[in-house]
Write a structure and sequence with these properties.
The chain has helices spanning 2-16, 19-24, 26-41, 47-56, 62-87, 93-113, 128-149, 166-186, 190-201, 206-231, 257-260, 262-286, 289-310, 312-316, 318-340, 342-345, 366-379, and strands at residues 154-156, 237-240, 243-247, 250-256, 362-364. It has 382 residues and is mostly helical.
Length: 382
């Protein structure tokens, strides 16, 4: 798949004379070296890297960064999703049957209700700094709860969902709505919402939850490519020199191509993500649960630090800072409560301590292994 995408890309760029345009957007390609790997290996799509880097470092408008995330994830996460399906990796099919239609519907509705569709690139009506901080808060809360959970040295994990009752079904629906709205604002988030509901709340194995989240985000990205890129015309740009002068055939006040050439950025990053996302998925399939969780937590920490450093309004606007702090406390506390009490709150089947568990049902940390080794040594009289 990666070879096929690369060959088609080479032919298209050469025939279309797009090498200069590709060279102009080397920063987008460089960003997606890491972003595509993240997209394939974690519940945080390529947009989780592209959106903060583009908006905080490269000065790309929020709406362009959102659209780029969706456009490029169509290629990267689409390739990773196909690799997941072809390799036969386990996914939570029952969750996708609920999450996919709900997420896509909420994504499309949010595109209409929370965006100025008459302006170029359909910018969100929600202020950009609040969108960025909200994205950081959700990632940080998820990472904090996951890290606290994995302080336990032995965990029972399901490879599939238990029979869905009304409360568990409601959790999936809410997760789908939140993920769809988040994806409409920042180009990512459906995968994070899926991971939170499926893994954190419903207790599914992360090695199953991650490919499930990749498939969902790939599907939402494809819908976004069609809706925003083609129907709204955001990928159909007219460039004159170093300026974008029309979007989807509609003339606009000239915008710098370095910040608004969505198609050029996408073209520069296509071959990178075509290889990076499937390779990330391959590595994730061979990692342990705790290694995956450690990577997710590290990425979230990097997101928090970059937001504090590069988002100047967070340091100058008391209301925005209060929003971030209160939001982080509320989101972390709420998720932690639900995670600790998920059996009673979501009506999940309790774990039977007398039941036999296979190796695939348990996640065992180093601390538990050391305890077993110490007990074994004591039993041998050493």
């Amino acid at each position: 798949m990666s070879i096929a995408v690369t060959v088609v890309w080479l032919v298209a760029v050469t025939i279309g004379g797009g090498w200069g345009r590709v060279a102009d957007h080397w920063a987008a390609a460089l960003t997606m070296v890491f972003g595509s790997f993240v997209a394939g290996s974690t519940p945080q799509g390529g947009g989780a890297v592209a959106f903060p880097v583009f908006t905080k470092i490269l000065s790309v408008p929020t709406e362009v960064a959102r659209s780029f995330s969706l456009m490029i994830q169509t290629v990267g996460m689409g390739a990773a999703g196909l690799a997941i399906l072809l390799s036969g990796r386990t996914i939570v099919t029952n969750a996708l049957k609920v999450l996919m239609p709900v997420t896509i519907a909420s994504f499309l509705i949010a595109n209409r209700l929370l965006a100025d569709n008459d302006a170029p690139f359909a910018p969100s009506t929600v202020p950009g700094p609040y969108v960025k901080v909200s994205f950081t808060v959700v990632l940080a809360a998820m990472a904090a709860v996951v890290a606290l959970t994995y302080r336990q040295q032995i965990l029972v994990r399901r490879s599939d969902l238990p029979p869905l009752n009304g409360r568990a079904l409601t959790a999936l629906v809410i997760g789908g709505i939140v993920g769809g709205v988040a994806s409409s604002l920042v180009g990512s988030g459906a995968d994070v919402a899926t991971y939170i509901v499926v893994v954190v709340l419903l207790g599914v194995n992360p090695r199953v939850g991650v490919p499930t989240s990749v498939l969902l985000m790939a599907s939402v990205s494809i819908v976004g490519f069609i809706d925003l890129g083609l129907i709204d015309g955001q990928m159909l740009l007219e460039r004159v020199g170093d300026q974008i002068v029309a979007v989807g055939g509609d003339p606009i006040s000239p915008l710098p191509a370095a910040e608004a050439d969505l198609a050029g950025m996408w073209l520069a990053a296509v071959p990178i993500v075509a290889w990076g996302a499937p390779l990330g998925s391959l590595l994730a399939s061979r990692a342990t649960d705790r290694q995956l969780v450690g990577f997710v937590v590290a990425l979230a920490l990097a997101e928090v630090i970059s937001t504090i450093i590069f988002l100047e309004p967070l340091r100058t606007d008391p209301a925005l800072a209060a929003f971030g702090i209160i939001g982080l406390i509320a989101a972390t506390g709420g998720l932690a409560y639900l995670q600790r009490n998920r059996v009673s709150v979501l009506g999940l089947p309790a774990i039977d301590g007398s039941e036999s568990f296979g190796r695939s049902d348990l996640d065992v940390g180093r601390g538990f292994r050391r305890q077993l080794e110490d007990r074994s040594d004591e039993g041998d009289g050493r």
